[in-house]
C-alpha cells in the first residue's frame, strides 16, 4: 500500500495525525502599523505551516489595493480623511475576505493569514463577525515596535523595492512612507489587555524581546505561538551540504552507513578550507549520527553536534539496494514511489512526509540559531531546502542536492537568497529524476530509465 | 592546545569508532562530540518561581522538573518551604510569616540561603543542568539576591511567576494541596483554611510582581489566571524556549489519561519482538472487553490515539469510535532483531543481548532504536497529551513504558523495566502534585512479554544465564 498501512480503516473514522490539526479552519489576522514586519511574519508563518503539512495561504490586502488602484501616487491615498481612499480600502479588505472564505470553505485550506494593518477595533470586529458567520477560529498576531532603527531597516529592506515606489528615489520613498505610517497612527487601537481579553492573540513587542499571549485555544495556535517566539531577524547564514561521497554512493546503493571514499575525504578537506575562508563568526556545525556525515565534520576540526533526526530517510526493506535491485525485487513498490514520491513510504521504512515530521525540531532550532552548517543527506537536505525555499510537496523530492556542493542560504527581505558553491571534487550523481512511465505495469527498462550511472 | 590544533591540521581526519552500546560514531579520542540530547544549554539554569502562596508554584516546579528530567535534562527542585519545615520542626501558625516577625524573617532568610547553597552544589558539583528554586520570591530585593548569586556562579536565571486572583482557584488549591501539608496535620479543615488565608495576607502588602519596565532586563514568563494569559520576556536560549512552550501547554482541568497496549498479537504468542502482526483470538477478545470498559467509564469527549501498526489499529477499530493514528507511537524499532525471539537474539547477537541488559535505556539495537531515542520521538505526544483532556492511548510495551515514566516520574534506569502487561489498562488521574494510577486488568488471558533484567549481564555469560528471565511462549 502507498503509505505502508496494512489495514486502513474507513476515512470517516480515521484521521492521520499530520493531516488534521484543528477541527475548524483558522483565520490568522495581523495587526500593526506599517513597517512592523506583518508581511514578513505572514509569509514566514505561511511557509512553515505549509511545510509541516497544514494547507495555508496568505492574503495581503496591500496586493489587492495595488491591483485595484494600479498606480500608487502618494501617501495621500492613506489619509484618514480621504473618503475615496477609505472606500477602496474597505472594498479591498472585503474582496480579500471573500477569497479567504473561498479558500477555507471550498478549496480545502486550513489556515488563512489575513495580512493587513487591521489597526482599528472596528475593522477587527468586522473580521471576527465574518469568521463567526463562517465557522472559522480567529487568532490575532500583533507586531508592536517603536525602535526607529528597526523601522528604518524595514523600510530599506522591503519598502524601497515595493511596486509602490518603483519610480521614486530612496529619499522620496522613505519620506512618503513615513507619512504613510503617520496616517495610521492616530486611529491605531492596539490589542488591549482588558478590552480584548476574550480574543485569542499574540502581541509581539520589539521584534521578539517580549510577547503577550492571550487565550490560546488549540494545537495549531499553540504551534504558531511557539514558532513565532523562536524566529528572529538577526542577519546570519545557513550552510547546507551532504556528506562527502560514500562507498555505497559509488556502488549506486541507497541508505546504509558506509564511510567516505577518497573523493569524499577530499571534499571534507575542501569543505574545511571553504568554511575557514568564509570567516564565519560562531559557526555551529550539525551532523547526523551516520558515519559519513561525522567523518565529513571531523575534517573541519571544530566542535559539532550529532542529531539522530538528521539521519537519512530509512529505506526499510530496500536499505543498501541498488535501484536495479529494487526494481527486480519490488517492482510494485518502485512504481508506487514514482507515482507519489512525497507520500510513498518504503516497506518498514519512511516517507518524505515522515521525514518532514521528524525534521521539524531541526527547523525550529535552525530558526533560533544564527550561523549554522548542517552536514546531512540527500533526502534530508531536500526537506530542509524545501522549507527555506518554500517548495511544494510535489517539488521537494526532486530538488537537486548534488554531492560536494554547499548551499549558502541567507534570509533577505521576505525570502531566502541561495548561493550554490561546488567545491570541485568529482562525485557520482545520485539524483534520479521522475521517469516518464510510472505505471505499475511498466517495463524494467522504463523503470530504470532515469537511474544515474554508478560502478 | 595550539600544538594539538597544528598537529591535527597536518594529519588525516581522526578514525571513527562506533560505541557498541549506543551505536554512536565518535573519534577514538573522545573530545569534540556533543550529543544533541546531552547538552541543551551552555551553562546551568536556575528557574525561580514567583508568586503569592497557593498560586501553583510548587505544582509548576514539580511538573517542570519531571518533564525536564524525562527529556534528559538533569533537573532538581529546591522547595524553600521544605527547608523551613526541617528547620522549624513544628508549625504553629501564620504568625511565623508576619512581616514584623524578626525571628521568622531570620529563619526564612537562612532557609533560602541553605537552599541556594544546595542549588550551587547540584549545578556546579553534581552535574545538574537545571535547578528549580521554588519559593514565593515576592520582593524585588529577594530576587535581586538570587540574580547576584546566579551571576557569581555563572548560572542563567529564568523567572516563572504565577499571578491569580480568582478566589475559586485559590480555594481549590488550598483544598488540594495545603490541607494535606505537614503544616496542618493537627488542624481541621476550617482552621487550616483560615490560617492559610492569613498566611497569604502576610505576603500581600510586600508583593512586587515582575514589572514590564522595572524588570525589563530579566528573562521570565508571567502566567496569569492559570494560563489564560502569558507575558514572556527575553527568552535567552533553547531550554528557556522549551520551558515556555511546555508551561503554555499544561492545564489543570480535571481529566483522565488511559494507557494500554494493543491486544495480544500473533508475534507476541510466538515470543517474537517487533513486527507488524495482527491480533490473536485473545487479542480480539481484549479489544471487545476494552470497548465495554470504555463505555462503562462513561467518559466525556474521549479522544483515542493509536500507532500506525496493525495491532493497535485493530484494537481501536473494535471501539467503534473515531481515532487518530500517530507514527510516533510505533513500537521501538529493534533493527536487525525485528521479529526475533530472545533465544534467537542470544544465538545470533550474544554481545548485543548482553549490552542491552547492561544499560537497557541507552542501548540501541543495530539499525534500530534505544529507549532514549523513543523518549525523543515521543516528546510531541507528551506535549499534546498535556494539551488534551480525556484520552485513551493504545500503544506498545516500550512506548507505554516511556509514557508511564513521564507521568509517574520514573528514572531512566527504572523506565525500561516498568510493568506494562497485555490486556491491562492504566488509568492516570492528575492529583495534587502527582498522578493517581489505577490498574484495570480486563480479565482476558495473554502471554507475558515482560523480561526482567537477569543477574548475569556480562558479555561472557552462558546462554542459560542470558535466557534466565525470558518469559514463556510457544
TrEMBL record, chain A:
Domain 6-phosphofructo-2-kinase intervals: 20-235
Top-level taxonomic group? Eukaryota
- GO annotation terms (biological process): fructose 2,6-bisphosphate metabolic process; fructose metabolic process
Which amino acid positions bind substrate, per UniProt? 242-249, 292
Coiled-coil portions:
none
For this UniProt entry, the molecular function terms from Gene Ontology, in alphabetical order, are: 6-phosphofructo-2-kinase activity; ATP binding; fructose-2,6-bisphosphate 2-phosphatase activity
Q: Which residues form the active site?
A: 243, 312
GO cellular component labels: cytosol
InterPro entries in the record: 6Pfruct_kin (IPR003094), 6Phosfructo_kin (IPR013079), His_Pase_superF_clade-1 (IPR013078), His_PPase_superfam (IPR029033), P-loop_NTPase (IPR027417), PG/BPGM_mutase_AS (IPR001345)
Keyword entries, A-Z: ATP-binding, Hydrolase, Kinase, Multifunctional enzyme, Nucleotide-binding, Phosphoprotein, Transferase
Q: What PANTHER family does the annotation carry? A: 6-PHOSPHOFRUCTO-2-KINASE/FRUCTOSE-2,6-BISPHOSPHATASE, 6-PHOSPHOFRUCTO-2-KINASE_FRUCTOSE-2,6-BISPHOSPHATASE 4
The similarity annotation says: In the C-terminal section; belongs to the phosphoglycerate mutase family.
Indicate what this protein is called per its UniProt record: -phosphofructo-2-kinase/fructose-2,6-bisphosphatase 4-like isoform X4
Provenance organism: Xyrichtys novacula (Pearly razorfish)
UniProtKB/TrEMBL annotation, chain B:
| Start and end residues of each 6-phosphofructo-2-kinase domain | 40-254
Establish whether keyword ATP-binding is in the entry: yes
Active site per database record: 262, 331
Q: Binding positions for substrate?
A: 261-268, 311
This protein's GO cellular component annotations are: cytosol
Q: Which InterPro entries match?
A: 6Pfruct_kin, 6Phosfructo_kin, His_Pase_superF_clade-1, His_PPase_superfam, P-loop_NTPase, PG/BPGM_mutase_AS
Superkingdom of the source?
Eukaryota
Pfam families membership: 6PF2K, His_Phos_1
Annotated keywords: ATP-binding, Hydrolase, Kinase, Multifunctional enzyme, Nucleotide-binding, Phosphoprotein, Transferase
Name a single GO biological process. Answer: fructose metabolic process
Q: Name one GO molecular function term.
A: ATP binding
Q: Which family does the entry's similarity section mention?
A: In the C-terminal section; belongs to the phosphoglycerate mutase family.
Q: Which PANTHER family match?
A: 6-PHOSPHOFRUCTO-2-KINASE/FRUCTOSE-2,6-BISPHOSPHATASE (PTHR10606), 6-PHOSPHOFRUCTO-2-KINASE_FRUCTOSE-2,6-BISPHOSPHATASE 4 (PTHR10606:SF14)
Please report the name of this protein according to its UniProt entry.
-phosphofructo-2-kinase/fructose-2,6-bisphosphatase 4 isoform X1
Tell me which species this is from.
Xyrichtys novacula (Pearly razorfish)
Amino acid at each position: 500500500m502507498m503509505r505502508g498501512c496494512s489495514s486502513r480503516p474507513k476515512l470517516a473514522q480515521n484521521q492521520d495525525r499530520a493531516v488534521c490539526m484543528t477541527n475548524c479552519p483558522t483565520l490568522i489576522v495581523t495587526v500593526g502599523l506599517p513597517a512592523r514586519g506583518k508581511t514578513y511574519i505572514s509569509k514566514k508563518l505561511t511557509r512553515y505551516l505549509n511545510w509541516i503539512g497544514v494547507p495555508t495561504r496568505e492574503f495581503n490586502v496591500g496586493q489587492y489595493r495595488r491591483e485595484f488602484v494600479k498606480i500608487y501616487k502618494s501617501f495621500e491615498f492613506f489619509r484618514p480623511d480621504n473618503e475615496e481612499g477609505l472606500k477602496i480600502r474597505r472594498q479591498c479588505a472585503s474582496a480579500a475576505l471573500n477569497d479567504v472564505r473561498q479558500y477555507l470553505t471550498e478549496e480545502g485550506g486550513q489556515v488563512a493569514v489575513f495580512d493587513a494593518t487591521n489597526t482599528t477595533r472596528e475593522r477587527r470586529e468586522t473580521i471576527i463577525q465574518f469568521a463567526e458567520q463562517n465557522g472559522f477560529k480567529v487568532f490575532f498576531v500583533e507586531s508592536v515596535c517603536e525602535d526607529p532603527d528597526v523601522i528604518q531597516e524595514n523600510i530599506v529592506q522591503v519598502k524601497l523595492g515595493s511596486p509602490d515606489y518603483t519610480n521614486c528615489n530612496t529619499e522620496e520613498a522613505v519620506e512618503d512612507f513615513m507619512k504613510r505610517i503617520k496616517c495610521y497612527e492616530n486611529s491605531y487601537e492596539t490589542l488591549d489587555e482588558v478590552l480584548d481579553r476574550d480574543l485569542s492573540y499574540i502581541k509581539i513587542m520589539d521584534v521578539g524581546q517580549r510577547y503577550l499571549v492571550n487565550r490560546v485555544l488549540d494545537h495549531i495556535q499553540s504551534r504558531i505561538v511557539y514558532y513565532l517566539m523562536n524566529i528572529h531577524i538577526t542577519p546570519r547564514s545557513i550552510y547546507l551540504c551532504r556528506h562527502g561521497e560514500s562507498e555505497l554512493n559509488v556502488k549506486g546503493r541507497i541508505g546504509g552507513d558506509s564511510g567516505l571514499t577518497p573523493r569524499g575525504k577530499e571534499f571534507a578537506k575542501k569543505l574545511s578550507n571553504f568554511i575557514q575562508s568564509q570567516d564565519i563568526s560562531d559557526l555551529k556545525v550539525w551532523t547526523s549520527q551516520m558515519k559519513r556525515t561525522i567523518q565529513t565534520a571531523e575534517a573541519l576540526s571544530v566542535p559539532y553536534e550529532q542529531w539522530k533526526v538528521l539521519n537519512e530517510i530509512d529505506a526499510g526493506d530496500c536499505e543498501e539496494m541498488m535501484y536495479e535491485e529494487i526494481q527486480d525485487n519490488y517492482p510494485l513498490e518502485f512504481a508506487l514511489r514514482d507515482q507519489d514520491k512525497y507520500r510513498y513510504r518504503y516497506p518498514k521504512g519512511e516517507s518524505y512526509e515522515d521525514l518532514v515530521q521528524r525534521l521539524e525540531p531541526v527547523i525550529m532550532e535552525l530558526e533560533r540559531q544564527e550561523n549554522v552548517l548542517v552536514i546531512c543527506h540527500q533526502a534530508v537536505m531536500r526537506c530542509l531546502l524545501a522549507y527555506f525555499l518554500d517548495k511544494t510537496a510535489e517539488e521537494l523530492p526532486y530538488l537537486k542536492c548534488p554531492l560536494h556542493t554547499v548551499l549558502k542560504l541567507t534570509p533577505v527581505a521576505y525570502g531566502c537568497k541561495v548561493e550554490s558553491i561546488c567545491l570541485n571534487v568529482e562525485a557520482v550523481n545520485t539524483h534520479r529524476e521522475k521517469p516518464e512511465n510510472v505505471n505499475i505495469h511498466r517495463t524494467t527498462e522504463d523503470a530504470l530509465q532515469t537511474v544515474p550511472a554508478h560502478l
